Amino acid sequence: NIGKFLPWISMAKGLAFVALSLIIGVLQSANAEVPAIFILGDSTVDVGTNNYLPDSNITANFPHNGVDFPFQRATGRFSNGLNTADFLAKFFGFKRSPVSFLSLNGTLAIKKRRFRGVNFASAGSGLLDITGQTSTQKANVVPMGEQVYQFSMVYNDLVASKGTSEAQNFLSKSLIFISVGSNDIVGNHYSKNPIPKEQFIPNLAVVYEKHLRNLISVGARKFGIISVPPVGCCPSQRVSANGECSKELNDQAEAFFSTMDTLMRNLSYENKDIKYSLGNTFNITKPVIDNPQNSSFTDVKNACCGNGTLHCTPLASLCSNRHKYLFWDLFHPTQAASRLAASILFVGDSRFATPVNFSQLAEA
């Protein structure tokens, strides 16, 4: 029932309420055009990948995570319920995000007639191979390079199952959602020898471009890029900044979006069959933080689980009015905030997604 999502769409400052009939029309046209969705990135869109990494210390498959998920299951999502990947999938007619690649039974799942995509995202990961890793011997996360390789494995299985032409046609209509970059920026910021923003952000763009070109080489054509939100305003950053947002981290998030805007323009100019939507989650989130009275959120500073100073564990305190909190834990949005972000990415104007929004991307 798309109607229940509409109140959240009106919450972003300056974004008008969208008519129910319009959204239903968008959903119907988009759903017909999207055979599958593939999701890459970090914890903002991870649905349990790290559960399958025995040595990972970045997991969420325990309470209070999942308290609002069906049957209160802690699936590995860093959320009280669904995350942004789930809501985007729902808007395109899926039940929720596809399952993690590491949970699949190899080619068997891909050969199924109703194969509708895979989620490769891994909490703690980044564009750089070193981001989120604590040891060279053990896998703490699945970095973007490895996620792209996993996508190529899916491509090979699709070719083996459908033939090259049909596999490429299938992927050309599918959507590739990518949400990554925050962990690289925060990791560099707190490293012993941080690289200056003017050098680091362009370096990230070079790596991002390499990943995108590799995806293009194995059939990816439609990209929904979710840029970095105002990471400087996460409860984890406010703790070390006397309750204020970190301007330096937020400046890097904005610089990342600008760099990605240039990158995507150039890449699509060079590759005429590439379509994309670049989502500006900074512009979606920051107005809510600056003017919470214009939204349905009453707390935009503290974490619902752990009260903004402690990690979310089964013993942590838990707020009762979770739909009123912007942040679930020290780093991640609540289900309500994820619903808001996905809604605006789906139907928002050029302030929030450019050159088209995510629903228009499906039709491109």
Poorly predicted runs of 5 or more residues:
1-23
What is the structural class?
alpha/beta
* Ends apart, CA distance between termini: 25 Å
Order of helices and strands: HHEHHEHHEHHEHHEHEEHEH
Task: Report strand order across the widest sheet.
Answer: 2-1-3-4-5-8
Radius of gyration: 19 Å
Question: Could you say how many structural domains there are in total?
Answer: 1
Looking at the structure, the CATH topology is: Rossmann fold
In the CATH hierarchy, the architecture is: 3-Layer(aba) Sandwich
Task: Characterize the structure shown.
- The structure is a single chain.
- This protein is an alpha/beta fold and 364 residues long.
- It has a single domain, classed as SGNH hydrolase (Rossmann fold, 3-Layer(aba) Sandwich).
- The protein contains 13 helices and 8 strands.
- It has helices at residues 6-9, 20-33, 84-91, 107-111, 144-162, 164-173, 182-189, 197-217, 235-239, 247-270, 281-290, 335-347, 358-363; strands at residues 37-41, 117-119, 175-179, 222-226, 275-279, 299-303, 325-327, 353-354.
- The strands form 2 sheets. A 6-stranded mixed beta sheet has the order 2-1-3-4-5-8. Strands 6-7 form a two-stranded parallel sheet.
- The two termini are 25 Å apart.
- Mean pLDDT is 91; it is low at 1-23.
